[in-house]
Write a structure and sequence with these properties.
The protein is globular and about 45 Å long. The protein has a single domain (5-218), classed as Metallo-beta-lactamase, Chain A (4-Layer Sandwich), CATH 3.60.15.10. The relative contact order is 0.16. It has 224 residues and is α/β, with parallel strands linked by helices. The strands form 2 sheets. Strands 1-2-3-4-5-6 form a 6-stranded mixed beta sheet. It has a 6-stranded mixed beta sheet with strand order 7-8-9-10-11-12, covered by helices on one side. The protein is 29% helix and 25% strand. The protein has 7 helices and 12 strands.
């Protein structure tokens, strides 16, 4: 996706409800953004992809979740237990991840179980990630109250914004907010990212701009 950013998991690889997972290899740290669904085939694919890039137990400094839904955070337990990696999430999302809440994690929607996982770094402020300050967190709620965007300035390819489902659908049971969704969309648009990674794909340049403009024109969609 960029010179220091690698796509290591997505539904296109596994055929499962896996969000895009990114390995960011900065000068300071190795950061994993989102972990997939935690289903067996997803776990195997994630571990294999990381191993191919030289990441094994102790080889990651931090996992950060864009939000608490199963496709994005369901594999947290695997990375936490197998790779001995601390987990970070916005504090609202952190509570749902630690409880394995079947509604707030959307696990019930996928007919799956979310394995509760300790979140060692519940984030409450925007800014650099602890121990990895080349990557920044922006609070972009709306899809869920705990949605964030992770921003990294790649030295060659420019600004990479991992937004998860911040521009995705809304549901009352998740605590979604249409007003916050619009504010987050405009904030993401103002970043003018060189690379935009949603839960479903990564887009560059004009494609990224076109996607944001199309989402803006369509507006938020409610699932209930």
């Amino acid at each position: 996706m960029a010179s220091r950013v690698r796509l290591v998991l997505s539904h296109e690889y596994t055929g499962l409800p896996d969000a895009v997972s990114l390995l960011v290899d900065t000068r300071q740290c190795r950061l994993l953004i989102d972990t997939g669904s935690g289903l067996p085939a997803s776990n195997a694919a994630l571990l294999a992809a990381l191993a191919s890039l030289g990441v094994r137990s102790g080889g990651l400094d931090l996992v950060v979740n864009t939000h608490c839904h199963l496709p994005n955070a369901g594999g947290d337990w695997l990375v936490h237990e197998r790779l001995r990696t601390p987990v970070a999430a916005w504090h609202v999302a952190a509570r749902a991840i630690e409880l394995g809440d079947p509604v707030l994690t959307a696990a019930r929607d996928y007919g799956a179980r979310f394995t509760p996982t300790p979140v060692g770094l519940p984030l409450r402020e925007e800014g650099p990630l602890p121990g990895c300050d080349e990557a920044r967190v922006l609070y972009t709620p709306g899809h869920t109250p705990g949605s964030i965007t992770v921003v990294y300035e790649d030295p060659i390819d420019g600004l990479v914004a991992a937004v998860g489902d911040a521009l995705g659908s809304l549901r009352k049971a998740w605590g979604s907010s249409e007003d916050e969704w619009w504010r987050s969309l405009h904030r993401i648009k103002s970043l003018e990212p060189a690379v935009l990674c949603t839960s479903h794909s990564c887009l560059r340049g004009a494609e990224a701009r076109g996607f944001i403009e199309a989402v803006e024109a369509e507006g938020p969609s409610w699932l209930d």
